[in-house]
Amino acid sequence: MQRTKLTNAECPIARSLDEVGEWWSILLMRDALQGLKRFDEFSQSLGIAPNMLTRRLNALVDAGMLKRVPYSQRPLRHEYLPTAKGKDFSRVLMAFIDWGNRHYAADGESVQVVHHETGARLQLAFTDPADGRAVAPQDCAVQPGPVASAQMRERLTLKQRLEASAGEQMLDQPRRKG
Known about the structure:
- This protein is mostly helical and 178 residues long.
- The chain folds into three domains: 12-88, Orthogonal Bundle (Arc Repressor Mutant, subunit A), CATH 1.10.10; 90-139, no CATH class; 147-173.
- It is built from seven helices and four strands.
- The protein has helices at residues 12-20, 23-33, 39-46, 50-62, 84-88, 90-104, 150-172, and strands at residues 66-73, 76-82, 126-127, 134-135.
- It has a two-stranded antiparallel ribbon with strand order 1-2. It has a two-stranded antiparallel ribbon with strand order 3-4.
- A hairpin with a 6-residue loop joins strand 3 and strand 4.
- Helix 2 (23-33) crosses helix 4.
- The longest helix is centred in the C-terminal third of the chain and has 23 residues, at 150-172.
């Protein structure tokens, strides 16, 4: 069965998952961003089958997340280094750490996100570009962007319409006398 490609999907989540949604790819990017470079280092870290590791590394190179750089000519061997696009993926990994710690660290956190200079623990937040003010993820929402299709606008406003409809239904119900 042929896997559906999401490369041309309008949703940025769908497009992103098309490139790195396979869990081996995410773990490979984690390791690459933590400094692993060579095939044997990835293999040892992940315990992944060599044929799967080759496929995943090739896919990440094709996606522009990693670049393949020779480090030995005889025999020809390559290192895999994060590109600028790959380095940007660290934000996604930090969000995974934050979310995983909140929901799957019953015995305590094995990994924390900290400031690299001070060691102070950090929390996931977004920044308002106008004033640099931090905004917690729960205070964020999504909305259609300037090039959103009618279908995307419809999908993104569905929740608001459902909430409005539920509110109207509550108003239409007769009040019980108690």
